[in-house]
Design brief:
The protein is α/β, with parallel strands linked by helices. The chain has eleven helices and eight strands.
Amino acid sequence: MFRNIFCLGVSTQFDLPYDEQIKLMQQSGFDAFFTPWDYSFRMEDYAALAEETGMVYQSVHAPFGKVADMWHGSSSQQEEAVAELIACVRDCAKYNVPVMVSHVFIGFDREYAPNEQGIENFAKVIDEAEELGVRIAFENTEGLEYLEAVFNAFPNSRSVRFCLDTGHEMCYNHPHNLIKRFGDKLIATHINDNLGIRSRRGEITWLDDLHLLPFDGIRNWDETARELDECGYKGILTFELNRISKPGRHENDIYGKMEIEEFFAEAYKRACRFAAKRKAGNYR
């Protein structure tokens, strides 16, 4: 039976060095992986491991701690934020990783709004990506208006694409349907589940972003599969999962009680269960 290509992101929550995680992911059935990035990250080691194992180095997740500075920081803060993203783009090109996943904002401060300065800063990063042939998959996070601002500012860029985080959509972006809104730009996924917005007053916090295994939350996965098919997405199905619960919450505790081999095996089973709902896919 042919099947979809599955990817899993490495994590400090998985209690193994990244290289051991990647090898165990492959043993568990995953075909691809993604990693984080910072200035000290030895990306060449993981590019070499992809070559050694035959796995796909699907993407690098750019650092996001400074992305709000792209819009609202001082001149020096903006320069640092731009330089960091450009350095990540350059490493993606250097080590033949085709996609950099990037946030466009972080935080819940609605005192400010998207502005031209932020667009100019992202233009510098996007220009570099276009020059080097790297695609930037901008992810839905807090501040949906910032994501829309970037997409509206660069409608024809080859490098401006979309990464759907299914869990973020359920809490940070509720009640919007982002596959319908941005499906024409979709090149990457961060598939995970959660329980929506916990506050009865509708207050959204980072504690709602649980990154549960699919089918352990309340997302309608039949609908998600149908919408991915309808928008024509045939790319890698990438999963981004947490093994440790957020402070004051316990939904992920059961994962922490599993051996890591058991957790990866369960993640692969859920990936297969979701993929079986689809009519389309990237097959091997």
